TrEMBL record:
The lineage of its organism: Eukaryota, Fungi, Dikarya, Basidiomycota, Agaricomycotina. Keywords: Membrane, Transmembrane, Transmembrane helix. This is Chitin synthase export chaperone. The chain crosses the membrane at residues 124-144, 164-188, 200-225.
Length: 292
């Protein structure tokens, strides 16, 4: 196909590059899911609470299903279909709603992590709960208003977002920073008390640091591109954020290992946790009686 307008040709080439990037993202998450099936089954069998199973399924499989749903749109930068403005906004809203569910579940898991680490400190949880609810309300409002004024091309590729979307990108980042600081504080306290070298503690802090730094990089990159680019490149990180969320929150381990560690300090109430396997950040919660 020949393009008389150089700008139109540039936009089409950008859309094609974004489509290839999205397909690579979908391939990566598909490979990761399919190659860790034994660990996934093992984790779901070991999880003794239905909330853990539901959270895991959402984090692990919802990004994957969304990526699979995007494949037809990502083939060579176009679906081959004609999108009206309304139909494109509906499809974009569905994607945004699924992303919102994923973010909400991830933040809820972080809250449960803090709930366990801080020995069920209710005042702290109440404060964080208010921030959590405020974040959900803010993101829902911003998301609804931003996608109404978003810019897309004829193939329904995102080409621009309003400035209001800044709040959508910053709010989860701020909440994650707070969760990370609290986790780091508890780890330093553990080191001071002499049990910072325990495998279960290292697992918690490693998961938190890995997840935070990786997502921080992706969110900052997405923020820079969405605010500096005015073409398809503005949304090139969106699919990768979904993939990274699934990767860093459900990291595979040794499916055959049955090693467990029981903590004896009452200051941090963690149940007996599997050291290996799929280390979802809040694999097991504290029991009211603490440790044996």
């Amino acid at each position: 196909m020949a393009f008389d307008d150089p700008n139109m040709l540039q936009l089409e080439l950008q859309a094609q590059a974004v489509s290839y990037s999205n397909i690579a993202s979908g391939t990566a998450i598909t490979w990761n899911v399919l190659t860790t099936i034994p660990q996934q089954i093992q984790f779901l069998r070991r999880a003794d609470r239905w909330t853990i199973r539901i959270g895991y399924v959402i984090i692990r499989y919802l990004p994957w299903l969304l990526q699979l749903g995007l494949i037809p749109e990502n083939l060579n930068g176009t679906t081959g279909l004609h999108w009206t403005r309304d139909s494109c906004h509906v499809w974009s809203s569905v994607q945004a709603a699924m992303l919102q569910v994923i973010i909400t579940v991830l933040d809820a898991i972080q809250l449960l992590r803090i709930y366990a680490l801080f020995s069920r400190c209710l005042p702290l949880i109440y404060v964080l709960g208010v921030l959590f609810i405020g974040e959900i309300v803010l993101l829902s409002v911003v998301l609804g208003k931003s996608f109404i004024h978003s810019e897309t091309n004829d193939s329904c590729f995102l080409t621009g977002l309003p400035r209001l979307m800044l709040a959508y990108e910053v709010a989860p980042l701020v909440f994650q920073v707070i969760m990370f600081i609290l986790t780091l504080y508890k780890f330093l306290e553990a080191c001071r008390d002499g049990w910072g070298d325990k495998p279960v503690v290292r697992m918690f802090i490693t998961d938190g640091t890995w997840a935070f730094t990786t997502l921080l990089f992706m969110m900052l990159l997405n923020f820079v591109l969405s605010n500096m680019q005015h073409g398809p490149y503005a949304g090139i990180c969106s699919a990768w954020i979904l993939t990274v969320n699934s990767f860093v929150r459900c990291m595979p381990g040794d499916a055959d290992s049955e090693e467990v560690v029981t903590m004896s300090k009452p200051e941090v109430e963690l149940d007996t946790l599997p050291v290996s396997g799929l280390s979802l950040p809040v694999a097991t919660f504290a029991e009211s009686e603490g440790f044996e």
